[in-house]
Amino acid sequence: MRHSIGRAYFGSAAALALFGAWSPHARAADAPRNVVIQRDDWGIAHISGQTDADAVYGMIYAQAEDDFNRIEVNYLTNLGRLAEAEGEGALWSDLRQRLFIDPEVLKADYAASSPWLKALMDAWAAGLNAFLADHPEVKPRVLTRFEPWMALSFTEGSIGGDIESVPLSQLQAFYEKRAIAMTALERGTQFREPQGSNGMVIAPSHTQDGHALLLINPHTSFFFRSEQQVTSGEGLNVYGASTWGQFFIYQGFNPHAGWMHTSSGIDNVDEFAETIAPSPDGDLYYRYGGALRKVTVKPVTLAYRKPDGAMATRTFTTYATHHGPIVREADGKWIAFALMNKPVPALEQSFLRTKARDLAGFLQVAERKANSSNNTLFADDKGEIAYLHPQFVPVRDDRFDYRKPVDGSDPATDWKGLHALSDLPQVVNPKNGWAFNVNNWPWTAAGTDSPKAKAYPRYMDQVGENPRGAHAEKVLSARSDFTPDRLIAAAYDPWLPAFTRLLPGLIAAHDKAPDPARAEPVALLRGWDQRWALDSTATSLAVFWGEALWAKGADEAKRSGITVWDWMADHATDAQRLAALDEATARLKADFGDWRVPWGQINRYQRNDGAIRQTFDDAKPSTPVPFTSAQWGSLAAFGAQRYPGTKRYYGTRGNSFVAVVEFGPRVKARAVSTGGESGHPTSPHFADQVSRYVSGNLRPVYFYPEDLAGHVTSKEELVRR
Length: 721
Known about the structure:
Blueprint: H1 13-19, E1 35-40, E2 45-49, H2 52-78, H3 83-86, H4 91-100, H5 103-111, H6 115-134, H7 159-163, H8 168-176, H9 184-187, E3 196-202, E4 212-221, E5 225-232, E6 237-243, E7 251-253, E8 257-263, E9 270-274, E10 276-278, E11 284-288, E12 291-294, E13 296-305, E14 311-321, E15 324-330, E16 333-338, H10 343-352, H11 359-366, E17 374-380, E18 385-388, E19 406-407, E20 426-428, E21 434-437, H12 467-477, H13 484-491, H14 497-512, H15 516-526, H16 537-560, H17 564-570, H18 574-592, H19 599-602, E22 603-605, E23 623-624, E24 638-641, E25 649-655, E26 657-663, E27 667-673, H20 690-695, E28 699-700, H21 705-708, E29 712-718
Parallel strand pairs: 2-5, 9-19, 22-25
Antiparallel strand pairs: 1-2, 1-29, 3-4, 3-21, 4-25, 4-26, 5-6, 6-7, 7-8, 8-17, 9-16, 10-11, 11-12, 13-14, 14-15, 15-16, 17-18, 18-20, 22-23, 24-25, 26-27, 27-28
């Protein structure tokens, strides 16, 4: 008879008493139990190992217990093998990935890695394979065995996000030699929740108790990361959020320091327009300076699942220049795509920074320059705070506008090494006492103590300001006596600054040409304080109006090189503003019977199952959420929309993990993981944190053993294989 720890075991103190510390790994009574996984009363795994590698083994084993499906999908995506599970429709995302991620190169990188990193990758693969061996009821879709080198395909930094900048429609158009229109999402004109986060740090001078504070607030999918604590006998002791399948805490803290990453507006990928010159011998060349260089040609064969379940393959002939792989064609030129591709340094940097004890140590790790798209907010128990720009920043000739493809035949457009960290915009221990980033430019990161844009090349930022930037500055400037509770309150402040800016234009347009049919809606918005609330009918009307006006101006804003907020405020016509109001009231009436609908009746959180692509249903239970999309300046973000068959809005991304950390003599923290710790609907930890997410009532973090004592609901002692 085979024994296993079932899902019902977790969260059950009675089961712990019955089974004790038995584990499926304990094959021999005298085998050393070098990994321990303890679950607290929120289902969060606290992993300890004798070595860092032991801890990694337990860390990934615990993640697999909670949601192996998401781990596998992440690696199918990053290895370029998603079509093996999802069919031919995923071939283009697989091809895009394989243009940059070559399994044979990763195998060589693994073989050449430092012994310590290789040991971690070995433990990672062993932990996943042990989980699958111990849980035969878990049926992988494709990956029945993990190899250590696979960890190098998903390292953060963030090459995954960089690769996603390549539009799939144009990749397909190039390799199938036919015209395909770009989607609104690819053009950047579709209304969608921003891919980003909030990070704030407060210096001791601006806190009530004289301890530095850190706000960790990623805006991602609610089900994107696992909350864990990982410790070892080699000095590892880190708590925070780890992306499913990765063996490092991505955003978190240790006993001395903490860090929060936000998506940067830096120009971190570039396109080079190549002039192709076929030769009589049949080879392809491209012009570079006064010479011709041969185009690199390589076949890539991808497997995919057919509708009947059988497997098939398709081979693509791919092309590359020294700038990067060819991803599309434009104006008769082949477009090569350049990005950071440093998997070993990226994985080293991602893991080693979790052990940094202070800012100097954190910066020493950052010298690997393998972070291409993440800003960082940092705080430590020495009282240091900092805003740091991404560390992988190619040196470029600022005469050229790298927001568009540059001439690849001109050597002057080439990348010329990387900037030194000291050359980058940063804020270290600012006199104003705080720093932040909310995916906006770095030029307001610390108020008057911020870096000055004129001192840096244009490519250091491409996105400019956003409404959350003004909001963050306001709440951070409001006081100099922050406590953890006050920082949480600031992170949940209900002001929507976009509407403070945009509504006067609508009101003025109505006042110029009053219409009795619009009088009541305009009066409601005129008297509103631009703050979200569950019972606010003005929030509902404003959001519907804003989305309608956004749709009218997104394309024009893109063509003009301005933000949609600037277009809405400064370029929309009175007729467009009023027409958007008519559309908003009509939509509310059609969907809810009246244009006066409390926001909480519309804006909902719902999770019906553990599927990665959810199906929403207005007839099923859901939870009202008071905050809005971050597009309107809400610091507490909830990216919601209508789905096929629904009238209500349902959200799947926003404040996915929120933590406030105080770095006193002993670190203290409170946190919430919106999606819960488990992806299994039968688990008590599938949806047990939603009410805390909605209310901002963050729960205590059990960081020290004495904190965890009395809250342990299950324990596994594993023998690492």
